[in-house]
TrEMBL record:
Belongs to the FMN-dependent alpha-hydroxy acid dehydrogenase family. One of its GO terms (molecular function) is FMN binding. Its cofactor is FMN. It is an enzyme of class 1 (oxidoreductase). The lineage of its organism: Bacteria, Bacillati, Actinomycetota, Actinomycetes, Mycobacteriales. CDD domains: alpha_hydroxyacid_oxid_FMN. Gene3D superfamilies: Aldolase class I (3.20.20.70). This is L-lactate dehydrogenase (FMN-dependent) and related alpha-hydroxy acid dehydrogenases. Its EC number is 1.1.2.3. PROSITE patterns: FMN_HYDROXY_ACID_DH_1, FMN_HYDROXY_ACID_DH_2. FMN binds at residues 116-118, 145, 195, 285, 307, 363-364. Keywords: Flavoprotein, FMN, Oxidoreductase.
Length: 422
């Protein structure tokens, strides 16, 4: 039989006092800055992606979002990070956790840089200007692509206080390549990335279906797609015509440009040639085996970036994160190793560093931020990654990047792989 108890005073019905209602009724202040409000509410790179998709026409969005053929490489790269389990240490004082580290003699605020991206101003008109400024403000590297839509000199002028790197695709026209390298040095770039995994263009099927090209072609389909994205088209039509700043205003699809201009005869001896004329740090990007990683160092590279080009070249390529521990073991602790592909969270950055990376590069995350809100969107993306990385590091019981080791992560097997196919 239930015992009868008096009703606690806290549960007795009453009319709410006005002062209590005032505490509860805290409405957002009205604002005309819709973009700023949406960016402030975004709590992950995935949410920035949702904003970006709403604001950007299908062809440029799919150029960023897609990968080669069946997009298996991209899916596996993302799953590699999701399948990691952290091994936290507890009862550590993590009051002063610090993400800063040093790369090629320069201190950066966290072990991440903005990867080189092509067609960038087509995604959002601020393009490389937004990326370089946001990176400089955050204190991290910005990498300008040969396929960029802002020139070496313009980016250097726009972000003179930034740690600006230049990424080189070696062309069939060696004199033109040499001129680019010399321009980069003259403009103040001191780190040169040579991408080595693009002998020919990968089969990016979304781009083929969308007829993606630079400049974009106006068809009934693209006009209809633009009808509910007026801000993008206003920016596109009222700013300088899009072109590849380093390609003498060449136009065409990505595959056409790559196959017409890039050199499929690139060999390790070409790394020697670049090494002889580049006085700064030389980084080879696109390494996907232990042996090739060793060989580029033998030919003069100062560091490497393990990458399968964001899954945009060879589908079913090796997963860079899986390759990382083997390469670190083979090359030793003194070689600078970067990694990209699949990074969408600050926790991914911490995992990569724990497994042996000195730094990471983000490409799609950068583009999602750019498409979501220009420079402010890129800055918000970097803030999100910083918050996530700092929180992950502290919850793992770690105060600095140097303290991270492979013991902090364990590989697991995902039970929901198909749910992450995005």
């Amino acid at each position: 039989m239930a015992t009868s108890r008096p009703t606690p005073s806290a549960l007795k019905r009453r009319f709410p006092p006005v002062k209590d209602l005032k505490e509860l009724m805290k409405f957002e202040k009205p604002t005309l800055d819709i973009t700023g409000r949406k960016l402030a509410k975004a709590t992950s790179v995935w949410e920035l992606r949702q904003i970006a998709k709403r604001r950007t026409p299908k062809a440029p969005f799919d150029y960023v979002d897609g990968a080669a053929e069946n997009e298996i490489s991209l899916h596996r790269a993302r799953m590699a990070y999701r399948d990691l389990e952290f091994n936290p240490g507890v009862l550590r004082d993590v009051t002063d956790a610090d993400l800063s580290t040093e790369i090629f003699g320069t201190e950066i605020s966290m072990p991440v840089g903005l990867a080189p991206t092509g067609f960038t101003r087509m995604m959002q008109t601020e393009g490389e200007y937004a990326g370089s400024a946001a990176a400089a403000d955050k204190g991290i590297p910005f990498c300008l692509s040969t396929m960029g839509t802002a020139s070496l000199e313009d980016v250097a002028t726009h972000a003179p206080d930034g740690d600006n790197w230049f990424q080189l695709y070696l062309w069939k026209d060696r004199e033109a390549s040499k001129d680019l390298v010399q321009r980069a040095w003259a403009a103040g770039y001191r780190n040169l990335i040579v991408t080595v995994d693009t002998a020919i263009a990968g089969a990016r099927l979304r781009d083929t279906r969308n007829g993606f090209s630079i400049p974009p072609q106006l068809t009934w389909k693209t006009v209809l797609d633009a009808s509910y994205r007026p801000a993008w088209w206003f920016n596109f039509l009222t700013t300088e015509q899009l072109s590849f700043a380093s390609l003498s205003r060449s136009s065409g699809t990505v595959a056409e440009l790559v196959n017409r201009m890039f050199d499929p005869a690139l060999t390790f001896e070409d790394i020697d040639w670049i090494r002889d004329m580049w006085p700064g740090n030389l980084i080879a990007k696109g390494l996907q085996t232990v042996d090739d990683s060793r060989r580029v160092l033998d030919h003069g590279a100062d560091g490497i970036i393990l990458s399968n080009h964001g899954g945009r070249q060879l589908d079913r390529a090796p997963v860079p994160l899986h390759l990382l521990p083997k390469v670190r073991e083979a090359l030793g602790e003194d070689v600078t190793i970067g990694v990209d592909t699949g990074i969408m969270d600050g926790a991914d950055i911490i995992a990569a560093v724990a497994l042996g990376a000195d730094f990471t590069l983000v490409g799609r995350a950068y583009m999602y931020g750019l498409m979501a809100g220009g420079q402010r969107g890129v800055a918000r993306m970097l803030d999100i990654l910083e918050e996530q990385a700092t929180r992950t590091m502290r919850l793992c019981g770690v105060n600095s990047i140097d303290e991270l080791t492979p013991d902090h992560v364990t590989a697991t097997t995902s039970q929901a792989a198909s749910g992450y196919w995005i």
